[in-house]
Design the sequence.
C-alpha cells in the first residue's frame, strides 16, 4: 500500500485526483490535508468519502505540528502538494496569503518530508512560472523561470525551494508544471466556469483587455493521469511539463461556450485588462511523452462539451458557491471595471 499525503485535495484538481485514484486503484492510501479555504469543498469528494483507503484531515499546511503528526501517524512515504492559493486575480488584490501558503506552507511540508525520509515529494507547479511567451515558441523544462504575478512568483519560489532541498539534502523531489486545466468542480472564479455560469444566468461575460491572450488548455483528468505517472515513474530531481497542445485565445473560448449554450454574443463585455496580464502560454510536453509514455486522452471538443454539461447538470454545486462569499469577491473584482 502506498501511503500518500495529498494536500489541497478538496480543491479542483486535487479532488479530481483523489476521485480518479480511488476509482482506479486499490494500492493507494490517501490522507487529504486541506484547510478548506473558500476554494476547498468536501462536496467534490462525495464519491470518495466512505472509501476505506481515504481519510480527510482539516488543517493548514503551515501547521508544523499537525503536519508532523500526520506523517508519523499515517507513516507517509509519498507527498503530492496540490495545496495553494491558485487564482492570479486574487493575488493581485492581496498577495500575502499566497506567499504564506505557497512558500511557507511548502517549506513546512519539505521539512517534515525530510525528517520522515519520504520516498517521493511531488510539487504541483504551473506553467506560469515561466512567464509570458511572444507569438511563437513553447515553454520547455529548460525555459528560464520568470514569473510575473504575485501568484506565479510564489509558485516559482516554491519550485526553487523544492529543487534546493533535492540539491542540498538529496531529497527525492519531483516537479510538474501544467498548463490551464478545465473540468468539473473548478471554482467559478476561473475563466471557463465563470463564463459558463454567467452565460447560463444571462450575465455579462467580462473579457479582459482585447481577449486575445492565449492559454493552453488541458482536461483535468489528463493532468491527473500525468501526476500519477510522474509520482510512480518520474526520475528523481526532474521537472516535467504537462500540456495537451491546445492553445486558444480567450475570446475563442468565450464564444464557444456561448455557442454551446445557445446564447447571444451580446453578453460579451470587454473590461479593463488584468494588470501585468501574461500574453501567451504554450507547453512543450515532449519530455513526459517521450520519457514516461504519457499522452492526453481527451479531445478539447468532447471534454469542453462534457464540462459545460456538468455545470448545467450540477447547478446546486455552483449555486451554493455563488450565493455565499463569492458575491463579495465578484463585486470587488468586476464592479467598475468597464
Ligand atoms: P484550488 O484553488 O481549486 O484548490 C486549492 C486547494 O488548496 C483548496 O482545497 C484549498 O482549501 C486548499 N488550500 C489552500 N491553502 C491551504 C493551506 N494553507 N493549507 C491546506 N490547504 C490549503 O486550486 P486548483 O486549481 O485545484 O490547483 C491545485 C494546484 O495546481 C495548485 O498548486 C495550482 O498552483 C496548480 N495548478 C493549477 C492549474 C489550474 O489551471 N487550475 C494549472 C497548473 C497548476
Ligand atoms: O473574468 C475573466 N476574464 C478573462 O478575460 C477571467 C477570470 C479570466 N480572463 C482571462 C485571463 C487569462 O488570460 O482568461 C485567461 C484565464 O484566466 P484564469 O482562469 O484566471 O487562469 P490563468 O490566469 O491563466 O491561471 C490559471 O492557469 C495556471 C490558473 O488559475 C492557475 O492556478 C494555473 O497555475
Sequence:
Amino acid at each position: 500500500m502506498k501511503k500518500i499525503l495529498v494536500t489541497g485535495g478538496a480543491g479542483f484538481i486535487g479532488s479530481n485526483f483523489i476521485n480518479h485514484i480511488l476509482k482506479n486503484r486499490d494500492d493507494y492510501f490517501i490522507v487529504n490535508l486541506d484547510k478548506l479555504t473558500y476554494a476547498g469543498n468536501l462536496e467534490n469528494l462525495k464519491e470518495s468519502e466512505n472509501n476505506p483507503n481515504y481519510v480527510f484531515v482539516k488543517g493548514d499546511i503551515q501547521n508544523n505540528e499537525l503536519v508532523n503528526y500526520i506523517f508519523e501517524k499515517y507513516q507517509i512515504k509519498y507527498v503530492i502538494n496540490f495545496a495553494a492559493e491558485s487564482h492570479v486575480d486574487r493575488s493581485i488584490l492581496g498577495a500575502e496569503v499566497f506567499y504564506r501558503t505557497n512558500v511557507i506552507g511548502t517549506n513546512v511540508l519539505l521539512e517534515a518530508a525530510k525528517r520522515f525520509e519520504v520516498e517521493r515529494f511531488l510539487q504541483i507547479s504551473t506553467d506560469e512560472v515561466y512567464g509570458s511567451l511572444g507569438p511563437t515558441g513553447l515553454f520547455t523544462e529548460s525555459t528560464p523561470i520568470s514569473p510575473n504575478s504575485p501568484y506565479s512568483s510564489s509558485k516559482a519560489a516554491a519550485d526553487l525551494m523544492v529543487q534546493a532541498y533535492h540539491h542540498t539534502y538529496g531529497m527525492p523531489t519531483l516537479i510538474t508544471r501544467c498548463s490551464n486545466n478545465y473540468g468539473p468542480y473548478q471554482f467559478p472564479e476561473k475563466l471557463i466556469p465563470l463564463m459558463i455560469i454567467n452565460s447560463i444566468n444571462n450575465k455579462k461575460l467580462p473579457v479582459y483587455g482585447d481577449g486575445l491572450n492565449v492559454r493552453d488548455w488541458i482536461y483535468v483528468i489528463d493532468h491527473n493521469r500525468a501526476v500519477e505517472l510522474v509520482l510512480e515513474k518520474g526520475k528523481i530531481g526532474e521537472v516535467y511539463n504537462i500540456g495537451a497542445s491546445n492553445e486558444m485565445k480567450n475570446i475563442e473560448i468565450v464564444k464557444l461556450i456561448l455557442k454551446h449554450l445557445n446564447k447571444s454574443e451580446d453578453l460579451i463585455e470587454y473590461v479593463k485588462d488584468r494588470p501585468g496580464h501574461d500574453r501567451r502560454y504554450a507547453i512543450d510536453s515532449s519530455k513526459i511523452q517521450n520519457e514516461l509514455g504519457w499522452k492526453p486522452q481527451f479531445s478539447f471538443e468532447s471534454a469542453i462539451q462534457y464540462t459545460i454539461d456538468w455545470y448545467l447538470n450540477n447547478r446546486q454545486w455552483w449555486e451554493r458557491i455563488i450565493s455565499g462569499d463569492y458575491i463579495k469577491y465578484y463585486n470587488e473584482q468586476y464592479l467598475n471595471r468597464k
